[in-house]
Design goal:
Radius of gyration: 15 Å
InterPro entries: Acyl_CoA_acyltransferase, GNAT_dom
Shape: globular
Strand content: 25-35%
Helix content: 25-40%
Organism: Chryseobacterium fistulae
Pfam families: Acetyltransf_1
Protein name: N-acetyltransferase domain-containing protein
GO molecular function: acyltransferase activity, transferring groups other than amino-acyl groups
CATH topology: Aminopeptidase
């Protein structure tokens, strides 16, 4: 993937159907992996529309084709205010939610590239850290967070379940 042009950009409403298709693939992949994450009707098409409308939706493109969707939210995740554990910082942060990869890009390190771009985005906005949570049984994401240097900070309660919470200081 070295010669390919990889870009992070805001999702547009015209991207909605492609994003929803990618999320459906990810929901099915989680199910096949035996994960309980995303098996209860969330995220759904309304989630995608809302993310785009609020300016939270971002896509990582490879040569112009959408490979990954993620929601990037600045300083706003109410569930993160009551962590069982301790965050590394209490400054401004970017929250990463709803990471979903297109099947044809899965297993090729594209999510690691996404996190590189999110770190650049965070740095360029002068924001201190990135916070993210995932299910205990989302082994792929847990491995990515470990490889990208995220620190385990404790547990948060989101969408009716306990999630592992991570943070990485950027600046």
């Amino acid at each position: 993937m070295n010669s390919e042009e990889i870009t992070l950009r805001k999702a547009e409403i015209d991207d909605k159907n492609v994003i929803w298709s990618i999320i459906q693939q990810s929901i099915e992949r989680r199910r096949q992996d035996g994960s309980t994450q995303w098996q209860d009707g969330y995220p759904n098409e309304d989630t995608v529309e809302s993310d785009i409308a609020k300016g939270f939706g971002y896509v990582l493109t490879v040569n112009g084709e959408i490979a990954v969707f993620a929601a990037l939210i600045l300083n706003d995740e109410p569930a993160y205010s009551s962590i069982e554990g301790k965050w590394l910082s209490d400054g401004e942060f970017v929250v990463v939610h709803r990471v979903a990869v297109d099947e044809k890009f899965a297993g090729k390190g594209i999510v690691k590239k996404l996190f590189d771009h999110i770190e650049d985005f965070t740095r360029s906005h002068g924001i201190q850290s990135i916070k993210v949570d995932t299910n205990y049984d989302n082994i792929a994401m847990l491995k990515i967070l470990e490889s990208k240097g995220y620190s385990y900070c404790g547990e948060v309660f989101l969408a009716g379940g306990v999630r592992k919470a991570f943070e990485k200081i950027i600046i």
